[in-house]
Amino acid sequence: xxxxxxxxxxxxxxxxxxxxxxxxxxxxxxxxxxxxxxxxxxxxxxxxxxxxxxxxxxxxxxxxxxxxxxxxxxxxxxxxxxxxxxxxxxxxxxxxxxxxxxxxxxxxxxxxxxxxxxxxxxxxxxxxxxxxxxxxxxxxxxxxxxxxxxxxxxxxxxxxxxxxxxxxxxxxxxxxxxxxxxxxxxxxxxxxxxxxxxxxxxxxxxxxxxxxxxxxxxxxxxxxxxxxxxxxxxxxxxxxxxxxxxxxxxxxxxxxxxxxxxxxxxxxxxxxxxxxxxxxxxxxxxxxxxxxxxxxxxxxxxxxxxxxxxxxxxxxxxxxxxxxxxxxxxxxxxxxxxxxxxxxxxxxxxxxxxxxxxxxxxxxxxxxxxxxxx
Amino acid sequence: xxxxxxxxxxxxxxxxxxxxxxxxxxxxxxxxxxxxxxxxxxxxxxxxxxxxxxxxxxxxxxxxxxxxxxxxxxxxxxxxxxxxxxxxxxxxxxxxxxxxxxxxxxxxxxxxxxxxxxxxxxxxxxxxxxxxxxxxxxxxxxxxxxxxxxxxxxxxxxxxxxxxxxxxxxxxxxxxxxxxxxxxxxxxxxxxxxxxxx
Lengths: 374, 198
What we know:
Chain A is mainly α. Chain A has helices at 3-40, 65-75, 86-102, 130-151, 155-186, 191-197, 204-207, 215-218, 220-233, 257-282, 308-334, 342-371; strands at 51-53, 56-58, 113-115, 118-120, 291-292, 295-297, 303-305. Chain B has helices spanning 20-23, 26-51, 98-102, 139-143, 170-175; strands spanning 82-83, 108-114, 122-130, 149-150, 167-168.
């Protein structure tokens, strides 16, 4: 095999992994949503979709429901309103899903993998401005909603699209401002560098090597602000004013079949992206506590040497575990809180999240100056 | 006396007024998350007990999976009617028309005929109940002087695709048995022709 083909193949590994990961998480989240909400509410949840194999009805805990959903969505009538802008109407769900999928590309899910004499960064796209890329992709996702709202030729859809745009702006500003604290602490816009920085010990002059400098410890306020704004940018409950099933139905009111399914999918994809972002920026990314490149080095002096592949495998598993925990937490929030009214969501974004984020930047700057890292 | 504001939203002490803690969201959100996650973990633990350790008593959900399991029905439940039989299998009904008369929904239709036994006055030739009209008041059971009609079969699944199939005739009603323990039907559900698979 020629060198170029091998390079391409090796580069395809992280890209394929990310696509596989995000798409499967997105699909499984429909199942998680049903089951987790059911368990939280003392119910059983969807469990009746079954496949007959040799006269045996196989249900596997309702895991077949996403499949049944897909079949249902694909076989439904694909409706286009008579006065719709056909091109934009058909393009909108694809735009939504595309940016949801693309956003995960610069989130690292492991350290450098050395294989066949080559070094592969375990992230789909190695970018020096990775954070800005993710923010850009999340922001661009709202174009799909605005296109859907505009092209549907429906006042409720237009209202929903307008609400989505307003919500996205107020959330994006807070997201960007809250992340700045993290960027200042770790001194990079590259998410891989930020993840590596979180493996350093926190305040070694006080704690030695006991506590890793995860973002949630160095930037606790930013963590809460980012999480809140991040949930708002997924436009799921409690920030689902663009959809608001019980009031305006929202930007996808005229959509049916798989196009509607794609909007629902985009919400789940964005949830996965926000989980990945939170993990990478605040929960140590792929870091395992006390795991160095050569193996475990414990602060009490013991150490366990591990082969390179095992270390990388542990890192990837660690990242996936954290993402799953975050997904669980986001679902918990989604099934606990009621919807913010539109004006409440705006007020929260502009009068609470944004000023607090700016304050966080100032405090972070002062602290960094004080400890002499600035 | 001034306009009463006590216990209305205009009252500053009313529970709908938000205090500082509520306005700050974070604490209240955490309280809510604690409640829902407590339900989640307790129920997950019970599901684990049930599935992994085969515990009989652990219930992680209040759901009753209806077609597979039924909730226990009260013995007083008024379900599908049945006609009580004599020892020779003929209906105990003497076609006195009391039930037909008392029925507020006019869903009972009886045609009387002579009974071969001279000690028994009459016997119904036809005894139709239109369940599409029946309101399940149980007056027919109360009115019957011979205890010939009862509503204790425990059968509730008599939906049909057309009105004609909702009419239950004498032979069907005679064949039904009373429900067993917990109201579980002992006789098969008389599936109307419109519901039978083609």
